[in-house]
Structure prediction request, 168 residues.
Amino acid sequence: MKYAKLHNLLRILLVTGSLLTSLSAAALEWSDLDDTQRKVLAPYEEDWSSFDEARQEQLSRGAARWLSMDEDAQAQAVERFERWQQLSPDKRAELMQRWRTFRDLTPQQQRRLREGMRRFRQLPAEQRQHPRRQFRNMNAQERARALQRMQRRAERLRRAQPDRVPRP
Prediction:
């Protein structure tokens, strides 16, 4: 059961391009994998030789990453995967675009964003709800102005880093 979930998790990681970089110059033979990787990747053994090098490398790295996780981290990964599977294709596409946008930020911008999110998550629930309520309570004109301010900030970032911040 655990390996069936892992199989599905590895598949979605491949489909979404999930943070795994490819690229080995030569095909990775099944026998080149260590015993623990072969055990994790057992559902792919029959098809292994038909995979291109990039896919083999992605699966190999995914297995290594899985094996490096403790049980709690594995359980969290399975839970995130199950939540991902329940999302609509449109929501998945939206989240992938947001990930690509984040990935294209400079390391400094990523750190600032992570730090801001960390601080936001540490706020009591009531304080986290305040900005959301505030936005919902705005009339159409106020929302439009708030969105314009956010768009101007994004445009300033794009001008400051034109090759790093993609256009929506």
Summary: Residues 2-86 form one domain. Helices lie at 2-16, 35-40, 53-68, 71-86, 89-103, 107-122, 125-136, 140-160.
